Amino acid sequence: MEIAEFFVPVDVQKLILPDKTHPLLLGNIINSYLTDRSFPALEGMDIAIIGVKEDRNAPNNEGCAYAPDFVRKYLYNLFQGPFRVKIADLGNIRPGETTEDTYFAVRTVVAQLLEMRIVPLIIGGSQDITYANYRAYESLGQIINIVSVDAAFDLGLNEDKISNRNYLNKILTHQPNFLFNYTNLGYQSYFVDQDAVELMQKLYFDIHRLGLVRKNLEEVEPIVRNADLLTFDVTSIRQSDAPGNANSSPNGFYGEEACQIIRYAGLSDKLSSIGFYELNPAFDNGEQTAHLVAQMIWYFFEGFYNRKKDFPDRQRKDSTSYVKYVVSMEEFENEITFYKSKVSDRWWMEVPCQGLQSKYERQFLVPCSYSDYQDACNEELPEKWWQVYQKFM
After folding, report:
1. Which residues, 6 or more positions from 285, have their beta carbon under 8 angstroms from its beta carbon?
2. Which of 222, 299, 378, 385 is exposed most, by the fewest CB atoms within 10 A?
3. Strand (E) or helix (H) holding 333
């Protein structure tokens, strides 16, 4: 099936298209599916933008389906930057008769793009679309890690119907399951019940409170570098910076911090899909949030086109491109092997997985930071190492 059948073009009347005298504006460079243009060719593209105008499973934020075109209006008027983009905007997924039909379309499109090694960049819509994005990896038989930037976990209760508040529960209970690790960045404790916190700890998932993340934002880089899929809920940004959401609150990330997190995502060689959700134009004073999300996407582009391609896989980790450190700990029977890239100065640590390297090839080399190496040298077992080790037991 041709994926073009799933899309409708973007109405040019809804966009403020860039002045043609500025050839380096993204609107003049991105190959876009507009009402006056044909569906873009995908050969040679690096990134494909997908609008998903779906909010039927977001009863608490109705209206977020209108977000994609508002974001485009500002994205198209940003300059390319110090990089040459190869980006297609495929338009908006045609809404299905049911939300399941929309999920099927998203899953099919994302799976085909992943097979073509094109990064899908989804502009929602409600965050339950993440479930469809995840299911695309199931089609490829790929075990993945998810990072969610969100003020809550979106586990919900055991409702039968999926929603933007319980989509993670649907991912966890779906069989067959292809989720290796889930990480939350920026949760706010008053939005999360303690049973959910305990469940995350029992599953050896990574959860990081807002205050601790903001205290040392550089430590977010290795966390995001471990993701295959990143899903971003704009409710994680404080209301003063991103008012465009029915559930926005006074606390959250600053806009600059959100942009930095997304730039880290772009820099990750491992990350292969990303989505931005829950922007609701009805609440967006001066379209401030749409403008911010457009800038976040710009930072993703900048990160992507500065990727170092230095992930130390089995063929490369012993090459001259890495410095290898082996740390022995007196009270721990396993040595911990660290790899430092000479290209980017980024760190990884190896977790033994008892002959399962081929199945978990993308999991047993865990991104880390210099502080994790220092902890091991000081006889402190890095928490990231321990969590992954427990999953292999």
Report:
1. 243, 244
2. 378
3. strand 332-341
How many CA within 13 A on the CB side of residue 343? 12
Contact 45, 118 (CB under 8 A): yes
pLDDT tens for residues 228-252? 999 999 999 999 999 999 999 999 9
Q: Which residue has the tokens 């730039």?
A: 263
Q: Which amino acid is at 56?
A: R
Q: What is the pLDDT of residue 192?
A: 96
Q: What are phi and psi of 8, to 5 degrees?
A: -120, 145
Q: What angle do CA 117, 80, 244 make, to 5 degrees?
A: 85
Beta bridge partners of residue 123, listed in sequence order? 51, 276
**What is residue 79's DSSP assignment?**
B
**What is the pLDDT, as a whole number, of residue 29?**
95
pLDDT (tens digit, 9 = 90+) per residue, 12-32?
A: 888 877 776 788 999 999 999
- Give the residue from 95, 121, 148 showing the smallest Cα distance to 26: 121
